[in-house]
Design brief:
The protein is mainly beta and about 80 residues long. The protein is built from 1 helix and 7 strands; from the N terminus they run ββββαβββ.
C-alpha cells in the first residue's frame, strides 16, 4: 500500500490508509478521517488544528493542496 508524507517546518504530516478510508496524521495524533487522500490533503492544507502544535493552524505551514506535491511512502 502507499501513503503520502509532507515534511513541514513543524514536522511530518502523513496521509495513510485507514479503516474504510484515509487518515491524516501528525506525530501519533489522527487529524481526521477522509474518503480520499486528495480530500485529506485539501483539508490539511486549508487548516486543521493540531494539538501537538500548540493549537497552530496547519494552513500557516505552507502544506500543499496538490497531492502530487506530497512524497509517496510505502506502508
Amino acid at each position: 500500500m502507499k501513503g503520502f508524507r509532507f515534511g513541514s517546518t513543524q514536522g511530518a504530516f502523513y496521509i495513510l490508509p485507514g479503516h474504510g478510508g484515509w487518515e491524516a496524521t501528525y506525530g501519533n495524533e489522527t487529524l481526521g478521517e477522509f474518503s480520499s487522500p486528495q480530500q485529506a490533503a485539501d483539508e490539511v492544507a486549508r487548516g486543521l488544528t493540531c494539538p501537538h502544535l500548540s493549537e497552530v493552524d496547519t494552513s500557516t505551514l505552507e502544506i500543499p493542496e496538490k497531492l502530487s506535491d506530497w512524497e509517496i511512502v510505502h506502508v
